[in-house]
Specification:
Structural class: mainly alpha
């Protein structure tokens, strides 16, 4: 089971080379995983039909009760056969539908196969959280498939619309899942259905939220707007996602949860009312459209409403009819979409007003279309007729609400027959006054997939009894009826057969009066949901612009004040309501007097920041507050924290200095007295509140501190540095998440500066002889002795030729030359000694970054390029790769981030040990180094280029002055 699912994703990742080597024939290879899954599912038929199930579970995070659970029962068997079987035929169809020169074909192929894998995992999931993960994966892949023609605005909009609607529904569904899981005490679906939680306000709210997600996925009104627009996708996508797979996910979820929640008061009214409304509205809209694909799209909306109604009622016989209808719908709607793709290829249009005589030119295609359409119209002896008969019979013997639903189902079936006849007439028959449409022949491989599906609908009509055991195994999960219904093609003359005949005759009458029906439909048409969606988005966009314009004033002080006031209000409300200081130990000023002295100096530096007018002084004073905090860590006995704080503060100050080169020397914001009178109390109140919160949080401890246990655990493994062990082992999840956030933040910030390429190559000969940012900031010195220009000169830096003599510091260059490599060695030492001494990958990366910064400060951007010729992104990506790789390596022992330690012996060195936490820390080291390099190149080298460009323009203007007769300054 799991191996087949993994094969889908692995082969999807290989789609690009396969398409490059094989062209469209790669689809034949990509069809192997779903084909194998179909064969496997057939081998499980007897097991599922007997009411048994196959389960598989993997404890992902056992300490938190998080696991990935899969289960194959009767309903999952049906859905696996549909998703895998139809998926196989659609992939085979793609080999004829596309050509070798189709753009972006590899991405399309990979996304389609990955969607198949996600859909299969969804229907096999026996855990609510796993189901949600795969649910959202189908949403993402469907977005990529619908937006395949991304150069077209309609495709992009349709993909975004589908993503928005289904994602919002999925988020609501997730909340419902969490509530149900908490109420039931488990997230296993099979256990929840075996013992459902008691109905109450929480369960009713959860049911409504879950139905919101299911109905949005299955395009049930009022969420039906996205499905017709999704027809912008290629025809194979429509045949698979919008007929047999994705839109069935919502119906599947309703059918899956109905045995346990159909009795919840909010369940039946929602599914019955919205399902019935969708069936009528979708069928009515299909009667006045002219694009064959859009006609089928609204017909699909109508059928999905009918399926939702049947699946959600909660009756055994109706559930049996729903399962049969799910099977029948896939076997007639998928081939109809595939036939439309063939007609579009052969005739070049899908407009039924322009098509004429296609049936005579393509008789085999017409035969397949008529066969599938007859099943959609529920004509005997096809599967659609047997499923519709079962639905009518079950609703007929239900309660009053079921009989109301029966009347709506008959009316909806009339509409289905009407647009089915209109589809066949518009696509294949001759029309008076319309010339025959020229078409080209299609090969048998192109027609084989839809023909196979249509023939299945024909064979399973008389043979519907073959499916009765399997589908009844699902339906038996509901309370048993007095006379259980069994699937068969013929149940004799009765009311259900009469209703079927009424539906067929009524549909024929509607088609006969199609002109009047079309005019009436357009006369009473409401605004389309698509236009309403567009106006809502436009209104939200305008509202967001107005709110942004009101809030985002461009004043940093206003932003800070707003943030502090919100924090202040929230914390004060909690403090006043809970009064957590009762029983708390009174705070003490310091543990040792030295702490008080350092704290006083730190506060003095912070207060002095308010009095200075020069930006550089403010940066230095702000840096002193950081160094003061590091000294407090030293006094408190936290060398790891102190070392990290010193390094971070140093890097931060250098970054500030680099930025200040492009800013005015003095603060230009004038603060009025009333603003100062407001800012000071806000700042003091925020500081006091934070102090109280920190004191209360520390004094409110009720459990023993975890420090002793961590020290003991660290010593048990033969280590001494508890802080480093926490970061790379005990709480490595936090470190990995923070590393990813750090990388994303650095990439985002530097991307705002780099508008073009990030490359900073080595110094070209022409550049080394010209002006750089380190040689253009001052005019040449006149009258200064130059000395013997022929005397040999020692080059301490690799890019020293780019520096102007007046800007060079020989002492600084010598110091940098002598200390650069020792500092790098020190950074590596800090990396590897972290298990027993202060250090670690974060500190080591910062120290290595400081070594690179000193090279830049001494020699400019070319010196930095010589010191670090590789791109910063390489270090960042390699660091993330190492950290993530170590995390996934733990899966070999069943747990993410499981640590291994290897003990060895070397002849000269002696005993040693090497563990995966060290590799993890190496990833952190590389990531931090890459982030520092990226920031220095962005705020240093990039600004240097800007200075050089401005200086060159100024020099060019000065040189051009005498030539034009202008006075030069």
């Amino acid at each position: 089971m799991t191996a087949l699912l993994v094969c889908h994703f692995v082969l999807a990742a290989c789609a690009r080379p396969l398409v490059r080597w094989l062209g469209t024939r790669a689809f034949l290879v990509l069809a192997l995983p779903p084909a194998a899954t179909t064969c496997w599912a057939f081998t499980q038929w007897d097991m599922a039909a007997s009411g048994a199930s196959v389960s598989w579970s993997w404890a992902w995070m056992p300490d938190y009760g998080v696991s990935v659970d899969m289960r194959l029962d009767a309903l999952a068997e049906l859905m696996v056969l549909l998703a895998a079987g139809v998926g196989t035929l659609v992939l085979l169809y793609c080999a004829s539908y596309f050509s070798d020169d189709t753009p972006r074909l590899a991405g399309f192929a990979g996304n389609l196969l990955a969607f198949a894998g996600a859909m299969l995992a969804l229907v096999l999931s026996d855990d609510l959280i796993s189901l949600y993960v795969f649910w959202e994966l189908t949403t993402v892949f469907s977005y990529l498939l619908i937006g395949y023609n991304s150069e077209q605005r309609h495709s992009r909009r349709s993909a975004l619309q589908a993503l928005t609607v289904t994602t919002l529904g999925g988020l609501a569904m997730l909340i419902g899942f969490l509530i149900v899981g908490q109420e039931a005490g488990t997230y296993r679906i099979s256990e929840i259905l075996a013992d459902p939680p008691q109905a109450g306000p929480a369960v009713e709210a959860a049911v409504l939220l879950i139905l919101c997600g299911a109905l949005s996925k299955s395009a049930v009104w009022p969420f039906s707007l996205w499905l017709p627009n999704a027809m912008a996708a290629p025809t194979p996508v429509s045949a698979y996602l919008h007929a047999a797979a994705m839109v069935k996910a919502g119906v599947y979820l309703v059918a899956r949860l109905a045995p346990g929640f159909a009795d919840v008061p909010a369940w039946r009214p929602v599914v019955m009312v919205l399902g019935a409304a969708t069936m009528l509205l979708g069928g009515w809209r299909a009667l006045r459209l002219n694009d064959l694909k859009i006609v089928l799209a609204y017909g699909t909306v109508s059928q999905l409403g009918f399926l939702t109604l049947l699946a959600g009622i909660g009756n055994r016989d109706i559930a049996l009819a729903a399962a049969a209808m799910i099977l029948g719908h896939a076997l007639f709607k998928a081939p109809l979409f595939l036939v439309i793709g063939i007609v579009d290829h052969a005739a070049g249009t899908r407009d039924l007003r322009r098509l004429s005589g296609v049936g005579r030119a393509l008789p085999h295609v017409c035969a397949v279309a008529v066969l599938a359409a007859a099943s959609m119209a529920a004509l005997p002896p096809l599967l659609g007729f047997a499923a519709k008969e079962a639905a009518f019979e079950a609703l007929l013997h239900g309660d009053a609400a079921d009989r109301w639903a029966l009347g709506i189902a008959v009316a909806g079936s009339m509409l289905t027959v009407a647009y089915t006849i209109r589809f066949v007439w518009g696509g294949f028959l001759r029309k008076p006054g319309v010339p025959d449409t020229p078409v080209h022949r299609v090969g048998p491989a192109f027609l084989a997939p839809p023909a196979a599906l249509a023939l299945c609908g024909l064979v399973l009509g008389p043979g519907v009894g073959w499916t009765d055991r399997l589908l009844s195994a699902y339906a038996d999960a509901f309370p048993a009826s007095h006379h259980p219904y069994h699937l068969a093609l013929w149940h004799g003359w009765g009311t259900a057969l009469l209703l079927s005949a009424v539906a067929v005759l009524g549909g024929a009458v509607l088609f006969a009066g199609r002109d009047r029906v079309t005019r009436l439909s357009r006369r009473i048409a409401w605004p389309t949901a698509d236009s309403v969606f567009g106006h809502v988005l436009l209104g939200l966009e305008r509202l967001s612009l107005q709110v942004t314009g009101f809030v985002q004033r461009g004043s940093l002080s206003v932003y800070l004040a707003t943030t502090l006031l919100v924090m202040l209000a929230g914390q004060l409300a909690v403090l006043v309501a809970d009064r957590p200081w009762h029983g708390a130990r009174a705070p003490q000023l310091w543990d040792v007097p030295l702490q008080g002295a350092v704290a006083a100096l730190t506060c003095a530096a912070a207060l002095l920041c308010l009095t200075v007018r020069r930006r550089m002084k403010a940066v230095v004073l702000a840096g002193l507050t950081g160094y003061g905090t590091a000294l407090l860590f030293v006094v408190q006995g936290a060398p790891d924290l102190a070392l990290t704080q010193f390094c971070v503060e140093t890097v931060s100050m250098i970054v500030f200095v680099l930025v200040l080169r492009r800013m005015p020397v003095h603060f230009q914001e004038s603060v009025s007295s009333w603003r100062r009178a407001v800012r000071i109390p806000v700042a003091l109140a925020a500081a006091a509140t934070l102090g109280v919160v920190v004191w209360v949080a520390g004094a409110a401890r009720t459990a023993p501190a975890a420090g002793a246990a961590m020290v003991e655990e660290t010593a048990h493994h033969g280590l001494k540095d508890v802080v480093a062990t926490i970061l790379v082992d005990l709480r490595a999840w936090d470190t990995m998440g923070e590393s990813a956030v750090l990388a994303a933040a650095a990439i985002g910030v530097t991307s705002l500066i780099y508008l073009h390429r990030r490359a900073e190559g080595t110094a070209a000969p022409s550049e080394t002889r010209g002006h750089t940012a380190w040689s253009v900031t001052a005019a040449p010195l006149n009258g200064v002795p130059r000395g013997d220009e022929g005397a040999p000169e020692r080059g301490w830096l690799a890019a020293g030729a780019t520096l102007a003599p007046e800007h060079r510091s020989v002492v600084f260059e010598v110091v940098v030359r002598l200390l650069f490599h020792p500092v790098l060695v020190l950074s590596v030492y800090l990396l590897f000694c972290a298990e027993n001494m202060p250090g670690g990958g974060f500190v080591g990366g910062l120290v290595a970054g400081l070594a690179m910064i000193t090279r830049y400060l001494a020699g400019g951007r070319f010196e930095l390029a010589e010191a670090a010729p590789l791109q910063p992104g390489l270090f960042t990506g390699l660091g993330l790769f190492l950290s993530t790789g170590v995390a996934l390596l733990g899966l070999l022992d069943g747990t993410v981030l499981h640590a291994w330690t290897y003990h060895g012996h070397l002849p000269l060195i002696g005993d040693y040990e090497f563990g995966t936490p060290v590799i993890f820390d190496c990833g952190v080291y590389l990531l931090v180094l890459g982030v520092v390099l990226d920031i220095v190149r962005a705020l240093g080298a990039k600004i240097d280029r800007q200075i050089e460009r401005a200086a060159a323009e100024k020099a060019a203007a000065r040189d051009a002055g005498p030539e034009t007769g202008e006075a030069t300054p």
